[in-house]
Amino acid sequence: MFYERALHDKTIGTIFLVEFGDDITNEEWTEHIELLVNFWDLVFLDGTAYNGDPYGPHFTIVNLKKDHFQPWVDLFIATADEIYVPDVAALFKEKGEFYSKQFIHRLSLDTKNETLTSL
Fold this sequence. Notes:
The chain has 5 helices and no strands. It has helices spanning 2-8, 13-20, 27-45, 69-83, 86-106.
């Protein structure tokens, strides 16, 4: 649900299209979604399947800008509200907003053109 919307979003859709293609059932998408399921499992349930770096892979995303993070948060919040009961949705929304800010900070945005730069 979230990624189908993200793929068609006018602001962030191109980012996902370039990274994973337009078929949400393809291998790239499937691997990405599984990775994110494992990430959220770690965040909320202390799962052990995720052992990666959530920030590092984003350095290679072409044309990723600070302005892409708020539409991501908006879609994330809307999806959480639709899927979860209010208490659980609130936890996901809080973490989604936290990670959005962390991405912007850790990926270090160039203030002139707002594109990502390495730290």
